[in-house]
# Entry
Amino acid sequence: MSTSDKEKALETLRLFSEACTVSITALQQPLSASSSSLTCAVLRKDFLSLLTLVYTSTTKLTLTLRPSEPSYTAASGPLRDLAQHISSLTTCAILFDAHGATLSREVRTVAKEVIEALRCLSENFVNQGGQDYLVATGTVHDVVSQAQQSLSTDNISAVKKRWMSDRSMLDDVLDEVAYMIETHGAGDEEDEDEGDLDDEWDELGLGAKKKMSEAELSRTKKVHPLLRFTTGLQKRVLLDIFPRISSQSPPVSNATLDALPTHSHNLLINSEELTAALYAPQDLANISSAITSLAGAVSQLQSALLDGAMLPPPRTPDADALAEGVSSMRVSNDGATEKPKTPTKDRDVRGWFDTCFMQIDRLSKSLNDILASDSAN
# Structure
């Protein structure tokens, strides 16, 4: 193979890398408000087909440029195809803007990850002679395969996926507080060497967690139910609200749906901040502020669900049933439920949410009253 063929191939790889950069820049631009004549289902099918073409052309490229036996002239075809594929992939991803911001951001992220992996592959051949080309090729294949398996079908499924991503972290927060109560916030026993290391971290203000006083432990136990209820609330939205809005007529607008992930993430962030404030030594003002912020996040979620007509209409008031629902509400690691359970079709979903929101509001106010009293003493 002549030196000229090699230089031409390397120059084509450089141009391809630049094309990748241009596509990535386009995908990073703000979402547009333009409409699309193509349905979400058609766009998704086209996008997945383009990913398959990228996968195949990437394999062909690496086979022609493998360092042990490169065929520089044969690489021009796969490179030309890949350049066309990333251009089409970028255009297709941007067209999703008309079908919801959450879905569009997910698709754009996938496209950026694929194109970034291709850029790294091309730069590997140019700058490193293909030394790690198998790793770079595997990255492209992995990103494509994962996207083909998990790409959301529509905007509501993309919103649901974002909501679910916060779920496990909220469970972790709840487990952290439960463990804090169990160990009085001190954690596991440490050996002498670890103690010496903690002394060094203490000098930087990053030392080991302190053991709680009895008052701090009692305070943490009182706050724990608030975190359990908010965690349970987040789960019930996933289990009760998403199935409802998936089949609701008229459908919930994409603008309304796109606001939901922010509310879920606010629950997570404020729960984490409240948990952090519970570690000894406790600052009562910080705990009170964190409780107020968490209650505010819950209130904002309530308003969003009501304003977006995502909650079912209230049933005819039944004072006895409501009292029973409040008294029997419990929260496990799985979230808040009513006990005894009733068949799904007979459950008063709206009543459950109204009761849960009321309980969180009352509990947060009660906790702040207790903290104010503790501060005064």
User: Anything to note?
Assistant: Strands lie at 330-332, 335-337. Residues 46 and 236 are 35 Å apart (CA to CA). The first helix runs from residue 3 to 27.
